[in-house]
Amino acid sequence: MQHLPPETIRLLSSSQTISSVVSVVKELVENSLDANATNIEVKLENNGFDKIEVRDNGDGIKAIDVPVMGLKHYTSKISQHEDLETLQTYGFRGEALCCICGVSGIIITTKTADDEVSTQYTLDNIGHVVSQKPSHMGQGTTVTVLRLFKNIPVRKQFYSTAKKCKEELKKIQDLLMAYSIIKPELRIVFTHNKAIVWQKAKVSDHKKALLTVLGTAVMVSMVPFQHHEQEPEIFLSGFLPKSGSNSSLTSLTSPDRSFIFVNSRPVHHKEILKMIRQYYAAQSQKDSSHIRYPICFLNILVSAAFVDVNLTPDKTQIMLLNKEAILSAIEKILISIYGTLPTTMAGEPSSECANKIEQLSSDMLSDCRTIPLSETSQVTEATIPCSKTKEVSGDLGKEVNAVSNVALIESSEKSHKPGDNIFSKPRDATVMDICFENANNLSLSLETLKEAQKSIQIEQDTVEMSAESWSMGHGVKDSAGQIIEPVKILIPGKIGGQNQTICDKDTQQTPTDTSPSKYQSKSSSNVVQDKTGQITLYDLISNHTIRKALSPSALFMQETRLKLLAENPKTSLQDISVELEDMWKNLNEEEKKKFEEKAVKDLDRYNSQLKRKHKRRAPLSNQQILDKLFESQTQKKTALEPSRKTVEVPFSLSSLKTQLQQLSKSFDSGGERLQLINRLSCYNGWVIASGRKLMLLNPFRVEEALLYRRLMENHILPTQTLDTPISLSNSLLGGPQYIDRLCKMQKECSELNGVVSFTDPRLVFNGFKIQLIPGASTAEQHLHIQEMARCLPYYGVSDLQEILRAVLTKNAQRVHQCRPLKVVNYLEGEAVRLIRQLPLHLSREDIEDMLVRMQQQLEKECNTCIHGRPFIHHLADLPEPE
């Protein structure tokens, strides 16, 4: 054996601790949090392989600690192993910076509150400081990692693929989200290639932090909780999804949003997450909820002596001394929110279990899949091994926790009607009878039950519906379970010694109800006087179908049936009918009254349609019938005239002419006054009329011109005091005439020291504040520019000269007449920027007000915007009235 070189030891240990980009970010962010930072900025370039920068505003690194800050096992967090029992920081091993130095280059810039300036340090691959220089950074520490994995090309290539880079960025974002939740007062900005990926501002509590991270839609479905255990001392707090909440909002297919913290440290604890998933899935209504992870936030506060965080290099795996007590406390919270788990004890007698199963399936027994024993693969008994934690979901629509054997045995007989022709004779059928025996005879797996259920379902579907039964009209049943028959065959029978025609099995009388008088009266005529078949929804009147009027209960069931079928698609029609009847009975009077009103309206509709039916023609005599039979001409059918709804409207042609004349007079008297008509929905323009011209108005161009005019007249450029006042002279302004004209402008009263300030709006509005300093004589007076506008680049004396030139040559008396070219361009840009912030659709009142301002403030020749585009487009000319 031989001792490894120090360089190899450093590289091996460093690559074990710093395994990816996210591990570098995690170590540096935790160092910032340990330094009491409230503002952290994480910047990556090229997915972190070129540059990783973590900047904070923490306490900084003291000058005395700088020589050893990058050396291994130097730390300010602990001094001995016993200090782990009172650990309050994220880091404690003193390995992070040294390991980062071993796989990359590192630069640290730091400043404490006592330092005058910050200092930038460059470290070598061992962690020694090799150079330093002053820096402009403020208080805090900035760690810059360059060329990550420069000496481990295999790992760099592995993480350089597009998929891995995307995964690493997502892991970093999830990590920063976790810290931002547990530290609400923390501000975090995450940037990649100079583009902000995610950021979070400072907030006051955990709820607002979660609101920032998860969003409002998720937080509405979350419920807060707090729990405190005295012995051992445990404090739990956080947020969990509400019972019955939408699982698509409150759960994900990955545990990325299941935030679990132990003493404010983000950890991965499988047992805690498994328990939360178990209770969440039990109350969720979706079948796929058992494979989803609930969105949750759980912070566990226990004594540091009960937690071992020194398990893995990233410190995300921990061991708990009082794990059972913590799990028990968490379970109490879950039970208070979601209720107990639906489990069954293993020692219950089989009779009690059978009663429970019978109670669960009594309402939905019609959905239970049955199969004749003679047509199965002789499966008479199937045992399914289940445990207390396994849930078997059958066709009964409810979950049954099975702990023992499930047997399929023959229990009842089912007779079919002679007309069914499905079986040539009555056959034996089976129902599912769940019985519980000893748990030692478990043989078949849960998959066996699923396969058996599939075969049973296919067999039952074949029995219930076949091509032969469908062709004979036995495929469709009504709500009462009776087969709907389009044609009823009347079968003669003998009851009470007399021939009797039996129309329906529902009309058969029992021997106790038969009497000769009744049958004598019924058999006296073969004419069918009453409707004896199924109740139909439509009446056939004059070759037209008319929908019958429905009762209030029928209307209620019609509206509610679709909702019930959508919620429980596996429920049979019989169960839905029973449930609808119960719902109708329990409906309050106010709701019943609504359906009674609907029923009255439906009855009125039915009666009105009946009145519209055509009267039958009088029956022809025998001679007329014979004449019709021997006619050679064919019968011509007269078309039915459709009924039309008519409404009488008063109309007067003379009043219409009078109104037209008045309208034409108003057009002529109005001159060029613009009248607003309406807005075009497909175009943000308005149709207006002026005289007999129909035009299209663009309101934004008009508003742009109005705003630009207002800025030109009233806008004052903000000024800043110059460090060195600019002295004005004849040579600087271009001649003595400019100095003379400047001295004649409006001034304010002189101050005590004799200094006079110019207050002329043509100077002040354009961003110049000039002072006149008196001297011994007029020739010794000095003009200085004390303040000048800084919002425009390269704004200076040349622009003042342009103002004075406009005053001299053009006699500009108002501000908008002597604006310099730079100011004109600046105000045009400001007008365009402000107009783009207006809403897309302006109200009618705004347009009318804008038209009034346009006619008052703009000259007649001003009909274009600042870009030279016209306000109004001509559409058409209205014709002259005859």
The CATH H-level superfamily of the largest domain is Histidine kinase-like ATPase, C-terminal domain
Helix content: 25-40%
Low-confidence stretches: 344-450, 458-464, 493-535, 636-640
The total count of strands amounts to 33
Number of domains: 6
Q: Give the quaternary arrangement of the chains.
A: single chain
Distance between the termini: 119 Å
Placed side by side, the strands forming the largest sheet appear as 5-4-3-6-2-1-7-8
CATH architecture of the largest domain: 2-Layer Sandwich
Radius of gyration: 46 Å
Largest sheet: 8 strands, mixed
Which structural category fits the helices and strands? alpha+beta
Beta-strand share of residues: 15-25%
CATH domain topology of the largest domain = Heat Shock Protein 90
* Overall mean pLDDT: 75
> Helix tally?
26
Top-tier CATH class of the largest domain: Alpha Beta
Write down the overall geometry.
flat
GO biological process, one term: mismatch repair
Domain HMG box: 546-614
Pfam family, one: HATPase_c_3
Organism: Callorhinchus milii (Ghost shark)
Characteristics of this structure?
nucleus, eight-stranded mixed sheet, five-stranded mixed sheet, MutL/Mlh/PMS, 882 residues, DNA-binding, 26 helices, Heat Shock Protein 90, HMG_box_dom, ATP-dependent DNA damage sensor activity, alpha+beta
Summed up, what is this model?
The protein is of the alpha+beta class and 882 residues long.
